[in-house]
Specification:
The structure holds two protein chains of two kinds. By secondary structure, chain A is an alpha/beta fold. Chain A folds into two domains: about 270 residues, 3-Layer(bba) Sandwich (FAD/NAD(P)-binding domain); about 140 residues, FAD/NAD(P)-binding domain (3-Layer(bba) Sandwich), CATH 3.50.50. Chain A has eleven helices and 25 strands. The longest helix of chain A is centred in the C-terminal third of the chain and has 20 residues. The two termini of chain A are about 40 Å apart. Classes of the chains: A alpha/beta, B mainly alpha. Bound molecules: flavin-adenine dinucleotide (FAD).
């Protein structure tokens, strides 16, 4: 049977199975004999692979990732400001294989067959699973802003995925004249890294202040308020007076369209011309999750926070940016924390135990200058009455707190989250 | 007298059952502790300058968390986080990290 025919056959068999006519599905393996496949080797997927092995070293764990190199988005604003090279963002997962025995597969997963519990790779090969974890991250919604699509993004960067896009924005800033205008457009919630656009504005200001001090940054926001707003506004006033202007949608409405050749952003009531334009479009769960119909009408994937198992398709868990874990933000920290709850729950489920209540943390730092950082955090639990996660503690950096100390811990966090997520 | 003390015994028995049920509804200490490793490293083995929790003496952990929670010790970060955990949970996490 050729790959395609076999796949078609399996699909048919699966459908028949669902109808109760034939059961082709192999019986699920239990305990240490089980196979767990993870698709997506970013912060979420790598952490899940690692902790599954830590919790049960005998488990058969395979991590599928399509990209040869993973560039961390966390830290990418610091590369844009010129503090580090792009390579500083590289994260290696080799230790997961050499030290923990995770099987690393470099391939794109192109299909999931939930009936027969198979992940199908681009070359047609199939990976059977008893439990599947998806951490595919986000895709940009290139249909959301008139005038901004995949093609335009090749010269008007979003830089919301690290790598080539980061370099593109960096080079444009380097080439800009003194006195130029940088425009950043920020999307409505939810999106990857809520404070990210404002950290980016701060760090671009940090670069421009030293090299092209007559320049300006305008943030055109789809929202009327933003993460750590008071702290950012105070920091901008102290560090970069007059350089950063934030335009709320309450003032100018939403973006009507973008004129990519003239670098114009046209809002409902105004229009702005940029020298460097950075469009951060709205986002949606990564392609494979949507293709498998794991996403709902919001374009994100609903899950049970006890296990991060999909509420739509059994035996598939979704973590990280792609899942709905309200009120947790879409961050590397959240993805890491969710991965551990998911891993513990999978080990429970494979041993016929009901996963206990979850406990999670998010802590997001933002730099405004090399020795100036602020943060927002939350501790999360499941609320039976609200039927979702709730924050039981947390908040933002107190107004009078030591920003230098936060910067010290923000740097240390990068080392620790990287080791905890990717290191064996 | 006897009646009263019997009553006390009965009431405290009920209280114990309630507490046990409550604890079962709480996340396990392991699940709580693994959330810390996002900053404090896998099983508390942090890279400096973030404090290493692995192997930390129980009293040191409990005292620090208690003071963070009560706002007696200032930290722009831990004051916000420590609030989430009960005194018993803090002791549980202290025991978890001590063993690592
Ligand atoms: C500018 C910026 C700054 C940020 N700063 C911070 C910060 O300071 N702190 C913080 O906590 N977070 C930060 N974030 C957010 C953080 O980067 C993301 O939340 C995090 O990467 C989410 O992890 P994930 O596993 O969900 O997705 P990702 O890390 O994006 O990983 C997804 C992986 O899946 C792979 N993949 C997708 N589909 C397939 C497929 N079909 N087959 C095989 N592989 C596939 C992709 O190649 C990718 O490697 C920042 C983000 C940005 C943009």
């Amino acid at each position: 049977m050729s790959g395609i025919n076999r796949r078609k056959f399996l699909k048919l068999a699966g459908t028949l199975g669902a109808l109760g006519l034939a059961a082709c599905t192999t019986a699920p393996r239990k305990g240490s004999k089980a196979k767990v496949v993870i698709v997506g080797g970013g912060y979420g997927g790598s952490t899940a692979a690692k902790y599954l092995k830590l919790f049960n070293p005998l488990l058969d764990v395979t991590l599928v990732e399509k990209m040869k190199h993973y560039y961390s988005c966390a830290g990418s604003n610091e590369v844009i400001s010129g503090w580090h090279d792009l390579d500083w963002l590289l994260r290696s997962r080799d230790g997961l294989q050499t030290k923990l025995g995770v099987k690393l597969v470099k391939a794109k997963a192109v299909e999931i067959d939930p009936q027969n519990r198979l992940v199908i790779l681009k070359d047609g090969s199939e990976l059977p699973y008893d439990r599947l974890v998806l951490s595919p991250g986000v895709d940009m919604r290139f249909d959301a802003i008139d005038g901004y699509d995949l093609k335009t993004s090749k010269f008007i960067p979003h830089a919301w995925k690290a790598g080539k896009q980061t370099t593109l924005l960096l080079n444009q800033l380097r080439a800009m004249r003194n006195g130029g205008v940088v425009i950043i457009t920020a999307p409505a919630s939810p999106y990857r890294c809520p404070p990210g656009p404002y950290e980016r504005a701060s760090l671009i200001a940090n670069y421009l202040k030293q090299t092209k001090p007559r320049s300006k940054i305008i943030i055109i926001d789809a929202k009327t308020q933003f993460s750590k707003q008071e702290l950012f506004l105070k920091g901008w006033q102290d560090l970069y007076p007059g350089m950063i202007e934030w335009i709320s949608s309450a003032k100018e409405g939403q973006i009507d369209h973008i004129n990519p050749t003239k670098l114009l952003v046209v809002t409902e009531f105004n229009s702005h011309r940029a020298d460097v334009l950075n469009v951060i479009p709205p986002q949606k769960a990564g392609w494979l999750a949507r293709k498998t119909e794991l996403a709902d009408h919001t374009r994100w994937c609903p899950v049970d926070p006890h296990s991060f198992e999909s509420t739509l398709i059994p035996n598939i868990h979704i973590i990280g940016d792609a899942c709905i874990a309200t009120p947790m933000p879409k961050s590397a920290f959240s993805a890491n924390s969710q991965a551990k709850i998911c891993a513990a729950a999978i080990v429970d489920l494979l041993n016929d135990r009901q996963p206990g209540p979850p406990s999670l943390i998010n802590h997001c730092y933002s730099f405004l200058a090399p020795d100036y950082a602020i943060s927002i955090n939350g501790v999360y639990e499941y609320s039976g009455t609200e039927r979702q996660l709730v924050a039981t503690a947390g908040g933002v950096t107190p107004m009078n707190a030591d920003r230098q100390l936060e910067a010290k811990f923000a740097k240390s966090w990068r080392d620790n989250i990287s080791a905890d997520s990717f290191g064996g | 007298m006897k009646k009263v003390s019997l009553l006390i015994v009965a009431v405290s028995a009920i209280a114990t059952v309630d507490a046990a049920e409550l604890i079962a509804k709480r996340p396990s200490v392991e699940r709580m502790a693994h959330a810390c490793s996002g900053c404090h490293g896998t099983y508390g083995h942090a890279i400096a300058p973030t404090p290493v929790l692995a192997g930390m003496a129980e009293e040191v952990f409990v005292k620090a968390m208690g003071e963070f929670k009560a706002g007696q010790r200032e930290s722009s970060i831990m004051n916000r986080i420590a609030q989430a955990y009960s005194d018993e949970e803090i002791v549980g996490m202290a025991q978890f990290f001590k063993k690592q």
